[in-house]
Amino acid sequence: MNKPLSVCLCIAFVILLSGCGKREISDLALVMAVGLDKGKQEGTVRVTAQIARPADARGQTGAPSGQTGEPIYSISAEGRTIFEAIRNLARFSSRRIFWAHNFVIVINEDYARDGIMDVIDFFSRNHELRMRTWVAVTPHAAHELVSTQTGLEVIPGQSVDRLFRYNEIVAEAPRTDMRQLLAAYLSRTSHPILARLTLKGRGTSNKKPQEHGSIDQVELSGTGIFRKDKLIGTLDSKESQALLYFTERVESAVVPIPCPDDKKNEASLELRYQRFTVEPTYQNGKIYFDVRLKTYVDMVESGCRSRLSQAELMQLMEEPLEKVLKERLEKVVKAAQRTYKVDFLELGKYFENKYPKEWKKVRDRWEEEFPRAVVRVHVETEINNPVLLEERVNQRGENK
Amino acid sequence: MKNLEALLQSEFTIDYEDNVALMEEVLGKSCDIVKREVIIHEKVDIPCCFFFTDGLADDKQIDKAIRDLQYHVTHLDGTVLGSYDLIRNVQTHLLSDASISQVDCCEAAVEAILSGDTVIIADGFEKVLILSSRGWKTRSVEEPMTESVIRGPREGFTESIRTNTALVRRRIRDPLLHFRAMKIGKRSKTDVNVAFIDGIVKPGLVDEVFQRLERIKIDAILDSGYIEELIEDVPLSPFVTIQSTERPDKVAAALLEGRAAIFVDNSPFVLIVPTYFWQYIQASDDYYSRYWVGTFFRMIRYIAFLLSLTAPSVYVMLLSFHQEMVPTPLALTIASGREVVPFPVLMEALIMEITFELMREAGLRMPRPIGSAMSIVGSLVIGQAAVQAGLVSPFMVIVISITAISSFAIPNYAASFSIRMLRFPLMIASGTLGLLGFAAVFMLLVIHAMSVRSFGEPYFSPATPFRPSDQKDMVFRMPWWMMDKRPHMAKGDMYRQTENQRPGPDHDQGGHESDE
Amino acid sequence: MKTKITNGILMGLIINMVYPKAIGVTQGLMAREAMNDIWVAMVFSTIKGSVIMLLTVLIICRMPDKNLAEYASVLFGKWVGKFISLLQILFFLGAYATVMITFVYHMLDYFLPEMPVLLLIVVALIVGVYGVFHGLEVLGRTALVGVFAIISLNVLILIGSLHLMDVRELMPFLNTGVINTFIASRHNDTDWAVATMMTGMILPMVREKTIWSRAGVGGVMFSAIMVGMWPLLEVGVLSPEVTGHYTVSCMQLARSAEIGMFIHRYEMIMVAFFAITSLVQTMICILCTSQAASQLFGLKDIRPMIIPSALVLSAFGYWIVLDKVRAVELLEHVWPVWALSIAISLPVILYIVGLFIKPRPTPSDRETA
């Protein structure tokens, strides 16, 4: 019993002393965000990496450190392939570029129009990158967006990550990560969509408060539409909100509605609990989709100078709300069916689940079949909660 | 030396002078052996000689014996004097000591003297009397130093074996509780007692224990640690397979679970066999506090066990191989702390571990007044100054401190030490091979641990092999009214208590009615 | 010394034998063929697996102190028994290669990309040999630790990825057709085959033969429960296409799992648990091979055969793992044929032949009985 033990220990010790493949955390350049642009030359790609400078990002931790005041260090390099460009980054970086902590991949829209197959392949093949990395397109230069200081977090990549995570509050862009992009790209029924990041001058400097909007901030709003791997168009924030009903769960959304008897003012309605169903039917070779949205709504703000009681007010606003929601849903369906003619709404998946046999027949020509399908939208709302207030604020004072 | 052997084997003769000379020759001129000659009958004048060891024998008892002999011998009938029966009459009529016996072999007499008894050699008698006069200075029963409890008895074992057995006997007044005695050590002749409860003890265990004890051929046993090392199952293993305890209540509990206890004279540590690994994580408090509390503390100790075994290795592994596993904000914090540290993580960890072990060892050996100075210097060195000088990262200090605290939370010192030992191979493996090294060394440890047996019982017993009935007292400490059965190991009388011990108002009702 | 293990430990061994490859590699292989119905394929193969398991137990129950090869040598003579031992060695040679593929690619691709493959193989070899030298009893107890690891791993993955699950991906039921799904289930059959072959070798060392069949089939069922959640989660979270896209798809699932906002990178804990069961599987493979080898060479003790057989297994495993194309080729095409032809035909033939030929009790039999 002892002999094998000692032999094992000896071998183990020799192996252990050699120590392979080791690099310590302080030898790494932690990439927080990466941007992809077209290179200067035709057919090249420009990769920009936003790298965190830990000592500056974390400040005083007991040890004296050379503080530059710049929490991030952005570098970019070009290459004919993404991998070559990334290797070229190493020419500038004093530490080994480490991708595992990357929060977000930003792709320039010009680049995306030529196809992002290489991006999908590279980032899903590479073991350092995770499937939970957010992917977005931007109309701006990606290197500019990546090197912009934004949000409350010291590291902008982290701010963008938070934007995605708390996206459900505004729900104006899909939360697309690598996993979904890959799944949608590989899927036979649907096409990928990506969230859209834009730069907007919305930040105000403390030093010059009079100059509003002097600092660029990253905004998460809108959607990029792909056919296979090529960007073919975008949706604005309202359309994106409607799109989210189809692709993910919408937790809440806010819709302002004009007051019933006072068109100058508006009331805000918050959609709290919603049930969204898609019911496909197949009749005589024709495909129908019945999209049903049933939602319970809170009235979260009312600027209505109205004589009506709150209950009546809420009742009267249900119909316009239904109309607004229906319009929105129809608009995005129209965008899918008419404008772009791609099924990014995953309607094919609904159809496949209900009619697997029929699906096999239409599967190969779904591209042509989809624009011809009839989509009927039904919306039902119930405004039933005035939140904390039992009476309108202006009920007594304004009653003429 | 051969000469001495022969002398020891010789028997006493009828001749008084010869006997005394024999004793003197065997005992030599040791200054602590006292020879006291008295003449006990004023008419017949019988010379008598007392041999005893100064300091071991109780002076008062010897005084009394001499007084008895000198003053009361006259009361004896004259006819018996000088006759063969004198000594027997002395024994039965005169000496009022509790324990007295006759021997005829020199060896036994010498052993009696060296154990603190008094040997009386009388003229005209070919045997000698041994008067029990043991009485030396012992430490009184105090609170155990190594295993203190919040709730529970505060008595601890002492160096005297009789006190120790008495402490256990006081807890179990059962005639089936047996103490079997033997002596080990060619020179030390240490008393060793094996305790067990007949009818509960695991069958064959007592024979096995005696077999192993009899194998021991050693000159001296100075502490139960000697015995422990000489009868272990796996002498090469880092695991401790024999539990040692200072607490009589622990021994009593173990006996009631079907184990056996080995008492060794001159050692306040009693050995309990067989032992399961989990016993080291259980404390007496678990059983005396309410079961919620007991279970909670036990959980904490399991966490402490895991942390003290793996915390530094996991940290080293994460930082030198698997940086992607650290949550990003934490990774940045750690990276910023390590920015100025010149050492690799593994080396940093080893330095800190060794510093900590140094402090612990120094603090243990230092006289108490210097100890506090030690801790001030130590906390300055490994805490503030090392971090500010940029030698170690603040995170490493935290990890090492948590590990240290966890290892102190394990109730048994020996076990906590063996876990501390195992930490180093694990740390080196994970610092050089990452997850692979960690998994491989951990697996080797697991295989080894699974192969260990303690007196025929698998060491990790209620868990692997899995014994569903023993789970009530492993991770959880179930309430007493649920632990009806003794552990799997016990045989015979399996039930601790009658069923339905759960208290509650409905149980009391019957009692109330009958009272009225 | 005849070591004996309990039926509970037998179940533990079966679970460990099936689990690592079934969750790690098999699901991806099946997803390429059966798409979203891999869980149905798993149900199919579980049924097949339990039937073969039952057959194996029934065969051994005829002569409770003989394993398959010994039984065959009683029926047909010494040389057939040796031939069956050879078949068993061949089987475990392939099985070890798949185990190494699972173990090495999990570690290498996702954790230690710069580690030489040889080192991983050597470490598995050392741990395996060390374990096997302690014998079946210790191995069985280690397998129980493996079962604890499996349960913890399952709980962790369940907490982390249940909220990402999209039930729509599982629909429509039997999309690719029953027959296609049934054919795809052969990949999972190979996992059960490893378990049944192991049972055929070690069952005589299990106590209380009255509940053998219950323990054997129960082991299969427990393994099915342990493994069963993985195809559901992998398809639900990753989508069938992505599952089929990767060699080791369960790692992608593990990497996507997150508990709350902060704990979103904990796959290392899961892989640490996974490594335990994987190494237990390694040990059992070495044990079975060396037992078959000792029967082949007519040795009483398996110890002298441990190191040679472990070296042969590791060498073959190394050769396979070194080239990923070769490894996938083995997994996808060669191994199902290789494994199933041995693992299904052996018990079936022995069972049917055993119905007709009743061996005469020979003097040597009486001695052993």
Described by strand count, sense and barrel closure, the largest sheet of chain A is: 9 strands, mixed
Extract low-pLDDT stretches of chain A: 61-65
The CATH architecture term of chain C is Up-down Bundle
In whole angstroms, the N-to-C terminal distance of chain A is: 100 Å
Per DSSP E runs of 2 or more residues, the count of β-strands of chain A stands at 13
Tally of DSSP β-strands of chain C: 0
Secondary-structure-derived class of chain C: mainly alpha
How many domains comprise the coordinates of chain A? 2
The first-level CATH class of chain C is given as Mainly Alpha
Subunit organisation of the chains = heterotrimer
Number of helices of chain A: 13
Form type of chain C? globular
H/E topology pattern of chain C: HHHHHHHHHHHHHHH
Number of helices of chain C: 15
Distance between the termini of chain C: 16 Å
Name the structural class of chain A: alpha/beta
Give a description of the structure.
- The complex is a heterotrimer of chains A (400), B (516) and C (369).
- Residues 61-65 of chain A have low confidence and may be disordered.
- In chain A, the strands form two sheets. In chain A, strands 1, 2, 3, 4, 5, 6, 7, 8 and 9 form a nine-stranded mixed β-sheet that branches. A four-stranded mixed β-sheet of chain A has the order 10-11-12-13.
- The longest helix of chain A is centred in the last third of the chain and has 31 residues, at 310-340.
- By secondary structure, chain A is an alpha/beta fold.
- In chain A, helix 9 packs across helix 10 (310-340) and helix 11 packs across helix 12 (356-362).
- Chain A has 13 helices and 13 strands.
- With 516 residues, chain B is α+β, with helices and mostly antiparallel strands.
- Chain B folds into three domains: 2-131, no CATH class; 161-275, no CATH class; 290-458, no CATH class.
- Chain B is 47% helix and 11% strand.
- Chain B contains 17 helices and twelve strands.
- In chain B, a hairpin with a 5-residue loop joins strand 9 (260-264) and strand 10 (270-273).
- The longest helix of chain B is centred in the C-terminal third of the chain and has 39 residues, at 413-451.
- The model of chain B is unreliable at 510-516 (pLDDT under 50).
- With 369 residues, chain C is an all-alpha fold.
- Chain C has a single domain (7-357), classed as Up-down Bundle (Amino acid/polyamine transporter I).
- Helices cover 79% and strands 0% of the residues of chain C.
- Chain C is built from 15 helices and no strands.
- Chain C has helices spanning 7-34, 38-62, 68-76, 78-110, 117-133, 135-161, 178-184, 186-202, 212-238, 240-245, 249-256, 267-296, 303-322, 324-356, 363-368.
- Chain C starts with 6 loop residues before the first helix and ends with a helix.
- In chain C, 60% of the residues are buried.
- The chains are: A alpha/beta (400), B alpha+beta (516), C mainly alpha (369).
- Chain B binds chain C through residues 318, 321-322, 324-327, 433-440, 442-444, 446-447, 450-451, 458, 460, 463-466, and chain C through 6, 8-9, 107, 111-112, 115, 119-120, 123-124, 126-127, 130-131, 134, 138-142, 144-145, 148, 262-268, 271-272, 275-276, 279, 283.
